[in-house]
Please model this.
Amino acid sequence: MIRKPAKLESSTIAPVRAARGRKRSLKRPQAGEATIDMHHLENFIGYMIRRAQLAVFQAYNDETAEISITTAQFSVMLLARDNPGLSQGALSETLGVEHSRMVVLIDDLERRGLVTRIASTMDRRMRAIYLTRDGRKLFAKLNRRVTAYDRHIVKRLRGDDKEALLRMLRKLATPL
Model:
């Protein structure tokens, strides 16, 4: 089930405060509620990238709520599927996640029986990550949903905009 994200309209956004762990979303101002002039802020690339990230992550969460796999866990599972035996350290570095955070992510996936860690025969400090059979099965289901939603997002762009957008984002993601 694909849900369409709310359309962002300049200068008509009411402030929303969300407690830690709750959904953050834009809401339409109600009658008598003040609006905030956002037209200058919306001209900053960093701000709009962050707003786009929030919208995409919220849509991901809505699409995958009953599966309970975070975007970070999805990324770990995808890389483990495509690179069987990848080390925790390589995963951490590749995804730009602190090593201690990566350990927690993998601990949770392992506790759920979705990945397994195998000690390296060459270096006992290294742990190779593999998807389990259950992990591959769940990932296939999750990947179908995420791919479908990605296509839905692309429909909001015109023509070859997806490739142009990805090229520009890759440039921005490269350290200076």
In short: The beta strands are 86-87, 115-119, 127-131.
